[in-house]
């Protein structure tokens, strides 16, 4: 299985993007074809209604479902038949599509027919944006491969399995939580299952562009670096890179591994939140071509500051899950992405933490177009079995899949390796290896990990976790006023770090039930006033942290969680949202809004970190 991930690149030449009238076959499926012009590529979207069979006891097997067995004669019968089965919408979680599937954890078979035509000299690549949490994939009864992990894209070359005319694509999707999975068995978000992101088939020439990485070189704002990988592992093939608006057109040649290196001086308008400039980049070879929209910026650390394009930047962030609370379902569409990101912009953010897993490519691309910097992470979240060898392999695969898909998205400034993992030798060994792999795969971005284990000394909070040495940016999840009592008055809390690195408060906050008003000093009442007070107190603390480079409230909106079962205040919702599950602003929202707005007005981040001397 190729790790290289499909890019929703803009194929060169012109597509007539047409949606054929729904060809209502007996499977009641919609066919959506993206016709292309005379490009080297064609795309088919396989989104729409797929037939499904719920297989709670994993009884479905090779003979019946996979081979699409039909009764052979009068005495024969097939129990696992898809004919006239129910359908589910793809993309989408199954939990929110059927009330009886709200809590379902198990296997569901998905099936749809497709006809993409099969031409000699072409290859057919099947791409999945995300399938929760694992799946086996079959084409015309043959197993194509499997994938583990619900939040990263994956691709199979199905050329050998295809036949002309109608083909049958079948998935067995399973969302059971497992102790040796990533995330592990218990996590504070809803365990949505299903084909939760789009499915596409791309027709490419036999020798095609299989991957590319084009960004400014680390530490440079005028030199492009990277590479273009062809599917043929042979040398001297010409690859032409064009960035018309920057006056760039250069032909380079592949090495014996089929990779052509990029190293070009460029005078570019740099991407920034104020001016999220993207360039149309065209890559072409003798047989293939594609286009992408790519932005260019530099991101570095200098002492305790984060520098964007060489200037200190304060990350005014917010975290959110990939969920639309009003629908109690996974976010999957452009409009879902727009709802979440517009809410972040309205709060005054220039940064979003995509928690706790790689979110959809359309969310990432839209955030970049909106000028939002991003933190992207893999779901190495609490309770991971670091002593189990399979974990390193799984975490490494997930990390590479995340970086493979988004390495050309300049809006992403931080790759994060984990969230709240308990300090241990095994944890440090795995995360140290992953930090090295991330830097090797992508030397241009910053590496972080969110921790919550800090030592206290009276009013001091001490950052001593030795793993911090592996990170470019420190990140602390600290719930002062909720899970942790204040060690002193908020303005008297002193943060101390053994490391001369920037710190992001990557999570803070507390719960409130929207519309529930009352005392501001009693946590157990879940009042908006308590949450509001908590935010005011945390901001008083932030203003005293000299090496603070950003804050990220937990969380933008209330979200579904099996952890949260308080009978009157939670009912299956984590209520730390600044927005309610209906999207209404709680009082704390306005505290955060004014905090971020005050920074813009002062045009420098709080506690004047610009003037602080570098710690000796
Ligand atoms: C943790 C964790 C979040 C969780 C939050 C909470 O820090 O990172 O995923 O939802 O705390 O307890 O609400």
UniProtKB/TrEMBL annotation:
Gene3D superfamilies to which the protein is assigned, alphabetical: Galactose-binding domain-like, Glycosidases, Immunoglobulins
Any single GO BP term: carbohydrate metabolic process
Keywords recorded for this protein, A-Z: Glycosidase, Hydrolase
Protein name (record): Glycoside hydrolase family 2
Residue span(s) of domain Glycoside hydrolase family 2 catalytic: 299-560
Residue ranges annotated for the Glycosyl hydrolases family 2 sugar binding domain, each copy included: 46-205
NAD is among the record's keywords: no
GO molecular function: hydrolase activity, hydrolyzing O-glycosyl compounds
Family indicated by similarity: Belongs to the glycosyl hydrolase 2 family.
Domain Glycoside hydrolase family 2 immunoglobulin-like beta-sandwich, first and last residues per copy: 208-297
